């Protein structure tokens, strides 16, 4: 079933995250507008949940670019840390923290802890210029390794051992990761919502290309 729009902007300044989302969306028949064709927006992610932050980013990018905008807010929730780092995953080790810094801190705070169950959570929000809004969430279960394993992916991927894959996200190929990832689940759920709402190519939506 064809969607009513063929292009959108990804509301993220994270190049690696943009690339992963674009790869998944490509399989859904949706073109992602190149960075060169869109205006980036710095959004203060002060929401209390993944969903609140995703909506805030999608709305800001949609208004600025007048294109459908899809935002992702995601993070790692560790049971032994009462769900932390959660919405603060990207800045767990500080505002300017790198992936290396965040992984190092996670290993430090979990040192000696045998309870290492965790999950990645992703909230997706799609904002359309005609005012329609769509939201979806996905998650994937796993546990935190004691050492980094693998050199693919980004963020906490080298420390997250995915149960369904029986390997870390950083050991998995992009295709393998997408089949079970929190982001893949959320995007497929969003696609189902769009199809169910009859946003097909025969539906005329204002302000879309």
Kindly identify the CATH topology.
Maf protein
Structural class: alpha/beta
Shape: globular
* Architecture (CATH level 2) name: Alpha-Beta Complex
Strand order of the largest sheet: 2-1-3-4-5-6-7
Give the N-to-C terminal Cα separation. Answer: 18 Å
CATH class: Alpha Beta
Major sheet characteristics: 7 strands, mixed
Beta-strand segment tally: 7
Q: What count of structural domains?
A: 1
**Percent in helix:** 25-40%
Poorly predicted ranges:
200-209
In percent terms, what proportion of residues is strand? 15-25%
- pLDDT averaged over residues: 88
Order of helices and strands: EHEHEHEEEEHH
User: In angstroms, what is the radius of gyration?
Assistant: 17 Å
**Tally of alpha and pi helices:** 5
How are the elements arranged and paired?
Blueprint: E1 7-10, H1 15-26, E2 31-32, H2 50-65, E3 69-78, H3 99-109, E4 117-127, E5 133-144, E6 160-162, E7 167-168, H4 174-180, H5 182-196
Parallel strand pairs: 1-2, 1-3
Antiparallel strand pairs: 3-4, 4-5, 5-6, 6-7
Task: Write up what this structure looks like.
The chain is of the alpha/beta class. Helices cover 29% and strands 21% of the residues. It has one domain: Maf protein (Alpha-Beta Complex), CATH 3.90.950.10. The chain contains 5 helices and 7 strands, in the order βαβαβαββββαα. Helix 4 packs across helix 5. It is globular, with a radius of gyration of 17 Å. The relative contact order is 0.17.
